[in-house]
Amino acid sequence: MRRTLRRVAPVLLLGLALLGVWELYCDLGGVEAVVLPPPHAVASALWDNAGLLSHNFAVTAEEVVLGLALAIAAGLTFAIAIHLSPVLRRAFYPLAVGSQAVPIPVIGVLLVFWWGFGIFPKLVVIALICFFPVLVTTIDGLASLDPERAKLLRTLDASRWQTLRFAELPAAVPAALSGARIALAVGVIGAFIAETSTPTTGTYTGLGREIVLDAGGFQTARAYAATALLFAFAIVCFQSLAMAERRLAPWRRPGLAGATR
Amino acid sequence: MAHGSSSPGADPSNLWGNAREGSDVTTATRIRPGAAPAAATPSDAPRPRDELVISGLQVTYASERGAPVRALGEVSLQAHAGELVAVVGPSGCGKTTLLEVVCGLRAPDRGTVVGPAAVLMPQRDLLLPWLDALENAALSLRLAGLRRAGALAAARELFCELGLDGFERACPQELSGGMRQRVAFARTLLSGKRLLCLDEPFGALDAITRSEMQQWLARSLQREPRTVLLVTHDVEEAIVLCDRVVVLSPRPGRVLAELEVPLPRPRRAADPEVAALRARALARLAGEGP
């Protein structure tokens, strides 16, 4: 309990201080409420629109989680393929780099023509944005097995597949998780891009679209409330990934890692 | 083996006579037809068959700049089944290269290695940090195709035998340097190969732990007899552990001398016989007479 408090105290204090400055700035008439609503107005917008916002939040959260899962699956698959085959590396890697220059908001519309109004085109947009960091970090992680260990595995007659399974893949886990964290950070904004670039039908269309509609409709406080939800969601996801890393790569625990490498 | 460098009869208690002379296994004569086999010395002692025969090994590295570096000048040596052979020499005399060739990790420029499959135990334990101690030892068995449960059971048995019980679930980062080497040795043994190539296994340990580990290794090899090629720059370690000590010259490595170690076990570094043999080996290293 005490340790939890000590961990979260700094971010809580800084957050409160920033909110205080924001509130003060608005109260002293620094800017009109329709441009920058004060925090208490955002809080009451959050409360008043709890139903609408929570439904939209559920839509966006699903997109982020599934899109990220798709990105991680694709990133890992291509990273392993590229790691195992120099030909694939030469063939695929340049194209993967090039794919990052594609103006995704433009193709979002095309994806809807292709796959319809459902969630899938959005997942593709998010995955296109997120898979690159996973790909690059995992490729580096797979190559990070030190040559002495590789030599040892050879004298133990390890096959290519066994080397991958017992040594290279576990060695790549920390790097892949770092990639996943970067992917997550861009994934939330990726969901925003996905929602605003793909036409949708349905009652609840996600926080991203909500923000755009509210900002255009002078519902600024609600737009900020929706943003606050995305803000908190990103933090929670990041923390879950950090927890996953402690479970999946316990040898990287600080204090232990330094002793061996 | 430098032909004719051995001094016949130098050691009356030599258990195995001069295993090289007239050995039908040696291929040295094929590679160096000019070298006449040493004159047959009639010997009544039964001579165990050589399990490992290294003949006329030469290795040259292509260095990045300048002339290629000759790591091994010409090395020949033999080991018979169950024999512990130490290879000592100054740093950079190609000892590690020799083991890499024996383990099939590097092709020699000239010469041959005839022997069973060999496994390498490097100086750094190279345990995998994502596996616990038992899983690290069992890795050899898993790589040989055993299922997890069977591999772990076999490793657990060996852990008891080697005095490692209680450390099965420890992760490598929690183990001391000596314990890590023990786990690495268990992994080496579990590979099931008859020839162990130990590359300065205790080089990174402090003096006290090292002498403990030497005693431990001697006991372990009595329980699990294998043919061992031990590379070290510590002459004392070679004499305490091994049946025979092969002294290599500075780079490019050549065999300067071979000393039998006919001392009873267990041996201690402080034994006067060990000290006397050590002095002899060091004299050979310094290029002096027998």
How would you summarize what this structure contains?
The complex is a heterodimer of chains A (261) and B (290). Chain A has helices at 2-27, 39-48, 50-84, 86-99, 104-115, 120-142, 147-155, 160-197, 207-216, 220-248, 257-260.
Layout of helices and strands, plus pairs?
The complex is a heterodimer of chains A (261) and B (290).
Chain A: H1 2-27, H2 39-48, H3 50-84, H4 86-99, H5 104-115, H6 120-142, H7 147-155, H8 160-197, H9 207-216, H10 220-248, H11 257-260
Helix pairs in contact in A: 2-10, 3-4, 3-6, 3-8, 5-6, 5-8, 6-8, 8-9, 8-10, 9-10
Chain B: H1 28-31, E1 50-61, E2 69-80, E3 84-88, H2 95-102, E4 110-114, E5 118-121, H3 133-143, H4 148-161, H5 177-190, E6 195-199, H6 207-223, E7 227-232, H7 235-241, E8 244-248, E9 253-260, H8 272-285
Parallel strand pairs in B: 2-9, 3-7, 3-8, 5-6, 6-7
Antiparallel strand pairs in B: 1-2, 1-4, 8-9
Helix pairs in contact in B: 3-4, 3-5, 4-5, 7-8
User: Can you give the helix content of chain A as a percent range?
Assistant: over 70%
Based on secondary structure, the structural category of chain B is alpha/beta
Helix vs. strand class of chain A: mainly alpha
- Approximately how much beta-strand content do the residues of chain B carry? 15-25%
pLDDT under 50 segments of chain B (min length 5)? 1-46
Distance between the termini of chain A: 33 Å
What is the fourth-level CATH superfamily of chain A? MetI-like
* Overall pLDDT of chain B: 79
